[in-house]
Specification:
By secondary structure, this protein is mainly β. It is 14% helix and 53% strand. It has a single domain, classed as Porin. It is elongated and about 75 Å long.
Length: 473
């Protein structure tokens, strides 16, 4: 038997191909960051030195997991998951533990922003974000579910999982960002800003399993019958073009969803960002501090094709060979389960998905002309009691050189999700910028995390004289 039992326990994995700490670290904290800096803190719009900007595009890809080195090139190329365990020697089995995986793809732009005399700023921006998250899975389930080798339950042993969650979310938003200088006391200035955002939920899939127990040792003839207990819940809301459980070729996959990113939304919502920036002088060196909360709100999925299902099974016995022809369609799965005495409660309920809310703190000190050192930290505030997507929490030290035409940054970051230290490197050359917050992971075939980004824009920055004059006022 080839991984058949997992198709029943985790059937959502079979819905399609799947291709994170926020990236773009350099531009998010740059004094010339324009629109990208307002995603970190809307108050940066008035506080920064960009006079106006037309952002054409920005692409940011982040992939990370907690325990296992992943051949990320095989995932992006659509060749499936290939793991290299980092917790045990190669000749030893993997110790069962919780495993989590995140992939976030962000597409920013187009966007425009205007800054009036470094006192007021206003912008309109757009973005599309694709989240895929696997939370708290057993490492044995993960590796076996994507393993190409045949195995038997006797060889493998029991599957026990107290909690597992899989979430996919594709959303777009248009934001209206405003900021202003609200306080000026000699060399002390305070800026405040906010963004109002209108979200379209393009697709959402969420699967949660609790108290999963599949144990062949409980049955004498374990090669022919399996006994399992579980509490499973599934929700999805997709555009009318797709049905993740319809079976056949009409399945959800990265390319097909992204190509329809601005059509046939499955949900909608309203959210906002708020933030403040403080600027001053310390020993004749510029100093700034920032605090913000972003993505406050939720999306209600009440359109398109909605699917919901849940069931509780206690000590149910199913013949092993029945998994050889495990069904792929929504109705077929329900009928198949019913034939073994498992009733799946189904419906088309609307539900709410929380946005990836986070708290962002940043402090920066000028060391010399053009050279700055910053400290950034971000905490995930997404509600774990609701269906949600989220970013990883992190702390980063960011040395940087910046001028109006050229910038370079080299962040060193500790990621609390993947539990590893990342070294990044990025550059801005006038209108074009690119880099990675995890350059070492990008250089390796097998890594716990990767990130890369690039963008293009047209902009005009304030002159040195104008900036100095504004600081002296």
């Amino acid at each position: 038997m080839k991984k058949s039992i997992y198709l029943f326990v985790l059937f959502i994995f079979c819905s399609g191909a799947i291709y994170a700490q926020p990236g773009n670290t350099g531009m998010r904290f740059s004094h010339f960051g324009g629109t990208m800096s307002t995603y970190e803190n809307p108050a940066f719009g008035a506080a920064n030195d960009t006079k106006w900007e037309l952002q054409l595009f920005n692409v940011n890809e982040m992939m990370e997991n907690t325990d296992i080195k992943l051949n990320w090139r095989s995932v992006i190329n659509g060749d499936g998951f290939q793991f290299r365990d980092t917790t045990m020697a190669s000749n030893q089995p993997v110790v069962a533990q919780d495993f989590s995986f995140r992939n976030v793809l962000e597409l920013y732009g187009p966007a425009v922003m205007f800054n009036y005399k470094k006192k007021f700023a206003f912008g309109v921006n757009t973005r599309t974000r694709f989240f895929f998250q696997l939370n708290d899975a057993n490492t044995n389930i993960v590796e076996s579910a994507f393993d190409d080798n045949n195995f038997t339950l006797n060889d493998y042993g029991p599957i026990q999982e107290d909690y597992i969650n899989l979430n996919l979310n594709l959303m777009t938003d248009i934001g209206f960002t405003g900021s202003a200088q609200v306080l000026k006391l000699k060399k002390h200035k305070l800026f405040a800003g906010a963004s109002l955002r209108f979200y379209k939920g393009q697709a959402s899939v969420d699967f949660t399993g609790r108290n999963i127990d599949v144990d062949p040792n409980k049955i004498a003839n374990a090669d022919s019958v399996v006994e399992f207990s579980s509490d499973l819940e599934f929700n999805s809301s997709l555009p009318s073009d797709f049905d993740v459980l319809a079976g056949g070729s009409n399945s959800l996959n990265f390319g097909s969803v992204l190509s329809n990113a601005f059509n046939n939304s499955a949900g909608s919502g309203v959210g906002f960002d708020i933030g403040a920036v403080y600027q001053s002088k310390l020993l004749n060196r510029s100093l700034r501090a920032s605090v913000s909360i972003t993505d406050i709100g939720s999306i209600k999925y009440n359109k398109g094709i909605r699917r919901s299902a849940s069931f509780v099974a206690n000590n149910v016995q199913i013949p092993i060979d029945s998994f050889d022809n495990f069904p792929s369609g929504y109705d077929s799965i329900r009928q198949w389960a019913a034939s073994y005495g498992v009733t799946i409660d189904t419906g088309n309920n609307a539900y709410t998905q929380a946005l990836p809310t986070r708290l962002n703190l940043y402090g920066e000190l000028q060391l010399a002309k053009g050279f700055h050192i910053g400290l950034a930290t971000s905490a995930n505030l997404a509600s774990t009691n609701k269906i949600h997507s989220s970013y990883s929490s992190y702390t980063s030290i960011i040395p940087r050189f910046q001028s109006r035409m050229i910038e370079a940054w080299a962040p060193i970051t500790y990621n609390y999700f993947s539990r590893n230290v990342k070294a990044g490197l990025g550059f801005r050359l006038a209108t074009f910028y690119f880099g990675s917050d995890d350059i070492l992971g990008l250089a390796q075939s097998n890594a716990k995390s990767i990130n890369f980004y690039l963008g293009f824009r047209f902009s005009k920055n304030y002159s040195k004289r104008k900036v100095k004059k504004a600081e002296e006022k």
